[in-house]
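Retry 2 of 3 after timeout on previous attempt. Resubmitting structure tokens to design endpoint.
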């Protein structure tokens, strides 16, 4: 199954059921310089958001000046451009609604399989895509000699970083900082409501009735749950560093999550019923906390199906209610 978002969720925006593909994967800082840079902030603006400046500089270096014509191959990134008052000349086709202002802009096909001929006709200064599918997109754009740039957009923290970077690229730093400051205040309010409460162990699933994958905290839903204090069983119990981990019933029993939340791009009720039926085939299912306490639920696909910084406030509200009912 291919994650519509990126990863959501996470991943891309066309509905299919193969391997999940995130829209972005954060690059880990591997040197002392990168680690130190995480505490730096953009000193040109006193209200600037603190980001990993080494990573930000690497991303910004992809651009040669300020592009005037941009094609965007991601709904998550299109939403950021909209907040920065940047209008692209081409946008992806998606089941997820694009900003209203972009409704009449030339579609370029799906994020995974854009219409390269159409993109070329638009003569963009740069094609802006999600970092996690860079290799796939480069194979399509490079033969057409199209200038490309890629930013991370899978987890909420990655979306914040990309908003800051694109604000600098398009000379809209104030808009970027004001938008993130507003979002972070809403985030702070949500986090404060979770403080002092017992943090649950959560298992986050992505899929349909046909198949499921477990998601760690580097996905959109995972990053929201982590910020609210929940323990993600993929990271904390199963000790896996994989962003997406194939589901097996042994892992469900071993992890024994307090809450199981599913992001389904199909019928969520059918997906939950199928998951519950699979778990019940295991003799230990009645001992699982999430099942004993009836805490196996579906997340709103419109909020969690694709990573979205503009929907973060609503995503926090829904996740808060499910983790701390």
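Retry 2 succeeded. Sequence:
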């Amino acid at each position: 199954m291919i994650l519509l978002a990126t990863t959501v969720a996470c991943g891309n925006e066309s509905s299919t059921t193969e391997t999940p593909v995130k829209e972005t994967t954060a690059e880990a800082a591997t040197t002392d310089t990168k680690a130190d840079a995480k505490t730096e902030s953009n000193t040109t603006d006193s209200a600037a958001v603190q980001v990993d400046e080494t990573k930000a500089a690497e991303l910004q270096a992809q651009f040669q000046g300020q592009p005037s014509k941009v094609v965007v191959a991601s709904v998550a990134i299109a939403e950021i451009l909209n907040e920065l008052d940047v209008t692209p000349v081409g946008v992806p086709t998606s089941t997820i609604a694009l900003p209203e202002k972009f409704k009449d802009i030339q579609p370029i096909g799906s994020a995974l399989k854009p219409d390269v001929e159409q993109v070329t006709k638009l003569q963009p200064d740069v094609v802006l895509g999600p970092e996690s599918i860079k290799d796939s997109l480069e194979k399509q754009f490079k033969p057409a000699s199209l200038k490309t740039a890629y930013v991370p957009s899978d987890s909420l923290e990655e979306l914040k970083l990309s908003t800051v970077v694109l604000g600098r690229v398009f000379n809209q730093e104030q808009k970027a900082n004001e938008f993130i400051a507003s979002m972070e205040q809403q985030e702070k309010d949500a986090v404060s409501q979770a403080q002092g409460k017992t943090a649950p162990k959560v298992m986050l699933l992505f899929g349909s009735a046909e198949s499921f994958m477990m998601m760690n905290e580097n996905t959109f839903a995972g990053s929201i749950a982590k910020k609210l204090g929940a323990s993600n069983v993929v990271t904390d119990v199963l000790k896996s560093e994989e962003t997406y981990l194939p589901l097996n019933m042994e892992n469900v029993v071993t992890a024994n999550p307090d809450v199981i939340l599913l992001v389904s791009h199909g019928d969520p009720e059918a997906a939950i019923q199928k998951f519950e039926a699979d778990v019940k085939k295991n003799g230990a299912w009645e001992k699982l906390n999430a099942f004993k306490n009836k805490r196996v639920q579906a997340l709103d696909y419109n909020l969690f199906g694709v990573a979205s910084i503009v929907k973060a406030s609503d995503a926090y509200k829904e996740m808060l209610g499910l983790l701390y009912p």
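Attempt log closed. The domain at 53-175 is CATH 3.40.50.1980 (Rossmann fold).
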